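Anyone able to model this chain together with molybdenum atom?
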Amino acid sequence: MTAITESAICTTCPYCGVGCGVTARPDGAGGLEIRGDKAHPANEGRLCSKGSALGETVGLEDRLLAPQIGGQEASWDTALDLVASKFRAAIAEHGPDAVAFYVSGQLLTEDYYVANKLMKGFIGSGNIDTNSRLCMASSVAGHRRAFGTDTVPGLYEDFDQAEVIVLVGSNLAWCHPVLYQRIAAAKSARPDLRVVVVDPRRTATCDLADLHLAIAPGGDAALFNGLLAQIAATGAVNAAYVAAHVTGFPEALAAAQASDPALTGLSDADLAAFYRLWIGSEKVVTVYSQGINQSSSGTDKVNAILNCHLATGRIGRPGMGPFSVTGQPNAMGGREVGGLANMLACHLDIENADHRGAVQGFWQSPAMAPGPGLKAVDMFRAVEAGQIKALWVICTNPAVSMPEADRVRAAIAGCDFVVVSDLTAQTDTAQLADVVLPATGWGEKDGTVTNSERRISRQRAVLPPPGQARHDWQILCDFAARMGWGAWFDYANPAAIFREYAALSGVAGALGRDFDISDLATLSDADYAALAPFTWPQSARKRGGRFFAEGQFYTPDARARMLPIVPRLPQSALSPDTPFRLNTGRVRDHWHTMTRTVKSARLSQHMGEPYLEIHPRDAARLGLGPAVLAEVSNTHGTALLRVLESARVPQGSVFAPMHWTAQTASAGRVDALVPATVDPVSGQPESKAATVRIAPFKAAWYGFAVSVQDVTPRCDYWAKARSKAGWRIELAGRDRPEDWEAFALDLFGRAEAQAITMIDQARGLARVALLQEGRVVAALFVAPEPVAVSRGHVAALLGAPDQPALLAGRAGADRPDPGATICACFDVGVNTVLAAIANQGLASVEAIGVALRAGTNCGSCRPELAALLAQARSAEAAA
Ligand SMILES: Nc1nc2c(c(=O)[nH]1)N[C@H]1C(S)=C(S)[C@@H](COP(=O)(O)OP(=O)(O)OC[C@H]3O[C@@H](n4cnc5c(=O)[nH]c(N)nc54)[C@H](O)[C@@H]3O)O[C@H]1N2
Ligand SMILES: Nc1nc2c(c(=O)[nH]1)N[C@H]1C(S)=C(S)[C@@H](COP(=O)(O)OP(=O)(O)OC[C@H]3O[C@@H](n4cnc5c(=O)[nH]c(N)nc54)[C@H](O)[C@@H]3O)O[C@H]1N2
Ligand code: SF4
Ligand SMILES: [Mo]
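re: yes, here you go
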């Protein structure tokens, strides 16, 4: 294993599935100095804003450093004895299906392998599912239906060679920024490269698009059915490929021809332009992500896309193919290792008795799961029904990220026994647990991950485990030993687990499966420590490269399947009571439930508050002024979100990010609104198509506060974000407190502080600054309208002895307000960029880079810089 040294260690970013290589060096102050690894083939030195800020997220302030039972610190022995006794009792009394693991695509392969082996081979139940059910399950199911295996055929190189790249339901600019930069670079080198974005919203990714198709939610299957019909009509079918390698073409075509293109909501001209582009170039890569997967017809959407690539034989050759991009750093590894309830390790099939027998023989296990276990939504339903008596949640936060999140939260709270392994006890899920176990996190643990192009890379430790934290695989092995299976879980290190896994993949390879890395089954510890990134397979049968150019699918007859697809629209119907479609997803600088990105002030300034993107005409119709709060609700729950008017969303549709939790906002959990409607094949929830009603939140007052210390306000609305010197907090309430000074002292918990208060009764304004030892420790600004003070200016004065400027609430002429952060790397604000465009006559993103450095490091903000240029140009034209 890699020792802690002063030299930089090569590892892999723990965020998205691009799987960028990073080099990390301890900075001596508890943080890390982070750079892109130029030698890593996934990114060749590039990083995005989140990857660049990794060093700011490894601090220990919120970390769990010892096990807890019922909120009280306990020893590892006591905690694990309790966990084992509860699991043993539940299994003895109610059978192995009375327990469950809910795990994560952010676990390392070695952690995942151990969890899967433990549940499926030793407890003897299929009840291990993963948050990948919410993420990749429809892609997995679509791949398996078409290819007989869950395999992404292509490589990232295909982006460099493609003539047309279609991005379907993927906001690549924000969610896979380094791939987006790669396409941007390809396009500037080869201006003929055409990019199409298919997304109901006009996202930052559209900055690169030659054609944006603002498709109706759920219209994708109709779009690709239309394409297939047009492929046939224009003679673009690759008859030789279809004849040799494909089954089901006539049925798929007949279904496509019968399908109604009107379901796409697109004009005939747009459809024709798309079909021309796609059919006109052989080298087409169709990239897809959550706009496809997270749908009640997600698997069909995937197969509608695969059908078009199979019909044209555009698969597995340079520059072409369908490309499902994975979300989490090890989403792909989890699929390989069998993390899903309906899979076995190494792409073996849990429903196949021979496969089960082979794995049981290899593991020498006492009790093999007889078949698939419960998928995520069903698993939490079983928890709710009391059928699951003991639940272990590892590396995921289902009280926030599962659909019907309020119901899931109640189910977890009501479960007999819940264990959570996490980095912190301050998550919505951990707060419901009986036992919380401290896990090591990124930078502290060793193992492997697989990225979107099947590339396996090492994550390496660069910091020591903090406190008593243990690695996830160790915790599971310690538990297994207490269950009596110590001999089978006696690994010295992650390398030993990896060797066993690689050997098992050889068994799978011998059974004719594609996931075979048996070359690595005898890797020494030193080789594992030095393992360079490689793409699978790696075995005597095949080494690296693409799949399926010559057919050879993993079906019984080695032919791919085209499927007849009948498009279905989202399951929740709009109604007079719930007339808006709620689309959900991600923002550029936050990661999921924010447990790590929340710690970086830079990353928290881009989008500091949970928001609702709504078309200006809808906002006007509902009486929602700029920046007021909206109450969004349906039968499942309610959220309070800041209104962000934007014509980027179509009328009738709204967008809200998934990131806010009960730790960061009073009512920002959007999954409280998402119904647990699932795709019938994959079991993946429809996370992007809830229906909701929207009404103005009747605020009697709005507030903005800054504080050097974390606070949890008690008022109807609040949301908080990290700033450089502390926290910034947005507030609002239905009733005005009598005394603002008393309110502020209570809010900030500083009865002893000196308060300087300015009240303007007539205008309903109040400003309170709290000083201690002559320095501003907190300040509150109140108004009957959304508070108009400059956030950046106020936050910057925290800790300074400068209360007059602070209470003025805006910067003087000598200190212009930079505005909301746009470039997180160099901390450049919107106002700074706009001023530079106006004053220095900047006319391109490159010119902004030269003048301000904005956009010159990770490049994640380049689409937004381009938007500011366009905004400045249109303002100029109007003037
Ligand atoms: N910054 C950031 N990056 C991330 C993550 C993060 O949390 N933050 N998470 C990672 C993970 S786990 C994942 S899975 C990926 C997700 O990556 P993406 O899938 O790119 O991200 P999302 O924002 O969830 O959704 C993508 C788009 O789908 C669109 N969409 C909604 N409905 C439809 C529809 O019916 N059809 C089509 N065609 N499009 C539709 C939405 O408008 C949205 O822009 O991101 C990864 N990268
Ligand atoms: N409405 C809506 N809901 C969605 C989505 C959406 O687009 N819309 N997207 C879905 C998708 S694609 C995904 S992937 C999920 C993501 O949802 P989650 O998996 O619930 O979100 P995370 O915040 O990534 O949770 C990871 C947890 O693991 C902890 N952790 C980090 N590293 C480690 C480690 O090494 N060991 C352990 N034990 N713990 C660790 C973190 O502190 C955090 O609490 O959300 C899904 N939910
Ligand atoms: S694109 Fe960004 S988040 Fe994704 S792996 Fe690379 S640096 Fe990490
Ligand atoms: Mo995901």
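The radius of gyration is 27 Å.
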